[in-house]
Amino acid sequence: MTESPAAAGSLRRRVLLSLAVALLVFFGATVAVLEWSLAASLARARAELLETQLMALIAAAEPVEETRGLDLPEPPDGRMLSPDSGLHAEILRGDGRPVWRSPSALGLEFSLPPPGEPGTRRQWMQAGGEGPGLALASMTIDWEFDDGVVEPFRFVVAQSLEPWQAQRRAFRLGLVGWFGALAAATLALLAFVLRRVMRPLGRIEQEIREMETGQREQLSAGWPEELRGVAANLNALLRRERDRQQRYKESLANLAHSLKTPLAAVRALLTGADREPPVGRDAIRAELTRMDRIVAWQLRRAAAAGVAGSVGLAPVAVAPVLRDLAATLDKVYPERRVRCELDVSEALRFRGDEGDLQEMLGNVMDNAWKYGDGRVRCSAQSIAPERFALRVEDDGAGLDPAQASDALARGARLDESRPGQGIGLAVVNELVRAYGGEVRVERSALGGAAVILVLPGG
Amino acid sequence: MRALLVEDDENLRHGLAAAMRAAGWQVDESADGAEGLYLAEETAPDVVIVDLGLPKMSGMELIAALRADGRDLPVLILTARDSWQEKVAGLKAGADDYMVKPFHAEELLARLEALVRRSAGWSQPVLDFGALKFEPAAQRVELGGEQVELTSFEYRLLEYLVLRAGQVVSRSELIDRLYDQDYDRDSNTVEVFIGRLRRKLDPAGKLKPIETLRGRGYRFALAPVGRD
Questions:
Q1: What is the dotted CATH code of the domain comprising B127-220?
Q2: Phi (first) and psi of residue B2, to 5 degrees
Q3: Which residues of A touch B104 (CB under 8 A)?
């Protein structure tokens, strides 16, 4: 079934249309059932009434001994005397010859079924041509005259169906009228309720439109309970997106600005290359190294900024990441022959991105491999619900507190003779903090540095 | 030593190849992964340098194909992405070392030396033969504690023999590894350089570090000390 664009386009219209159809079906069926039951009870009442009138007719009949006939000097119901009253009566002999006929039956023809044995009662209908039709009842009885002669007579009562039909018409009209009014009122009430219920949706739409045009930064407060979650999530998403954009903008600006100084230096050096004595390549190389480190730092920082608020990630098993990194480092630094102890439960999970975990642990373990003296220990312990501390220790020279805070802060090159070091721990610090954790550098029982990362567990 | 350099950036490839040739390497160059794999199988290099982002066949695929072929020659990957995820993935795929762009050519050369040394079975940076000591990373040779001055070619020739200490290396293998392809194979340059090396490494004529096996080639004859 295809839906019309109008119905697909508006929830309110959909509800009203569906309800209108439902009401039509429900009220239609109700009217039909009520009318059917009314018709049944009317028919019963009519049959009883005919029966009563028949009995009254029989009771009012008086014998005419001379003609062995019957007469009705005083009809039981006055209506039998006036034409068009709708109530008629007739008395017939056993052979069908009429002995009496009510004045109201003038010009009427009754179509009579066979009379049957004495005591037989019948009721039937007679179509009225253009008129409303008749309901008839008859009874055949044996009349015993004073002289003991018994003659059969048939008493017939007929009543016009007109009043009954009028009653049914009036009933139906009333029913349809009331139910129609009720349905219309229900729909109107619902439309009103829907308008009220839907008003917050319209407001959200309006506010989003305002945000698109920049008139608004956030959805306002005071939403109904059902929309509160949506509004809060939408606001959080917007905030996160705006923060991220802001961070990217800042990273880009920082990158561009910080590259300008070494670029200017290279340009100055190249200008000086024409002069005597010419500037050495080393100066240009130093500037290139500086630019490289700036790019590396800003790139990693931007990556760290990207994880802020990355919720809903599948938890990552920590132990396999540690093993992979240890295998990688053993391959890269085979001369160092590092003996690495892993004391980390297989069940330990990190709540975040696997690449970020690799980045954090990779940098910390790389330092342990490089600066340690061949012994590294990685251990973990749970320190709070959904929080664990990962400890990477080595037996090298270690870091004093000043060196540690310097290394954590930013691009401090601790050992010029070993390239690559400098921003590693600072990147770890940025990433860990983006996950709401912290980095501590302590003295290890092994003799060297112990780097502790506090991270969200899963 | 023969190296295969697979890198699609022409400037970087040319620059690296020039630096490597200046250091005495024979370098085959390729700009895409498929050709790189072909060359790796044809030229049997001592080391392969692969960029990860390559046309036709990625660096990872190239390494995987080499390893699937059962070739265990050392492979160094070059990558612009400085992430541990990438490093772990590359080394898991079969690479032996990685370098993040940009880098100094000197560091690459040192890493290549180390890779070749390790693949020859030397895990320590100094190859100790008692009186003679070699430090490939510094291209340094010491005789009785004194540094021996060698030309770049002399050093290459010696290094090739030393890394295969105890094995016979044929003259044609040496020519193949140390000269360009258009080298005149009938010339007697190898003999001349072997003669010079003997004079420099064994001025007294007692040590006899390089043996000549007539009709078969040469052999570095000193026994390593404390090799594992």
A1: 1.10.10.10
A2: -115, 130
A3: 285, 419
Q: What is the CATH number of domain B2-119?
A: 3.40.50.2300
- As given in the structure block, the two tokens for residue B118 are 């390790």
Amino acid, single-letter form, for residue A252: L
CATH number of A316-456: 3.30.565.10
Q: B123 vs A358: CB contact, 8 Å cut-off?
A: no
B104 three-state secondary structure:
coil
The alpha helices in A213-317, defined as continuous H runs, are 225-272, 281-306
- The helix (run of H) or strand (run of E) holding residue A367 is helix A354-371
Phi, psi values for residue B118, rounded to 5°: -65, -40
CATH 1.10.10.10-classified regions of chain B? 127-220
Identity of the residue in B83, B92, B118 whose CB atom sits nearest the CB atom of A359: B83
Q: How far is CA A36 from CA A28, A49, A53, in A?
A: 12, 20, 26
Say how many C-beta atoms besides its own lie within 10 A of residue A137's C-beta. 23
Tens of pLDDT, residue by residue, chain A (458 residues): 454 554 457 778 888 889 889 988 998 898 899 989 999 999 999 999 999 999 999 999 998 888 888 888 888 888 888 887 889 999 999 888 889 998 888 888 888 888 888 888 889 988 877 778 899 999 999 988 888 889 899 999 999 988 888 988 898 899 889 988 988 999 899 889 988 888 888 888 898 899 888 888 888 888 888 888 888 888 888 887 887 787 778 778 777 877 887 787 787 777 665 665 566 677 778 788 878 877 877 777 777 666 655 455 678 899 999 999 999 999 888 888 889 999 998 999 898 888 889 989 999 999 899 888 889 999 998 888 888 999 999 998 888 887 888 778 755 443 333 444 467 888 888 888 888 889 999 888 888 889 999 998 87
**Alpha carbon distance, N-terminus to C-terminus of chain A:** 47
Sheet containing B168-169, strands listed edge to edge, beginning at the edge strand earlier in sequence: B168-169, B217-220, B210-213
The minimum CA-CA distance between B135 and chain A, rounded to whole Å, is: 14
* Strands A316-317 vs A98-101: parallel, antiparallel or unpaired: unpaired
The class of domain A14-166 in CATH terms is: alpha beta
**Which ipTM did the prediction report?**
0.77
B228–chain A Cβ distance below 8 A for any pair: no
Chain B neighbors of A303, CB-CB under 8 A: 83
Q: How big is chain B, counted in residues?
A: 228
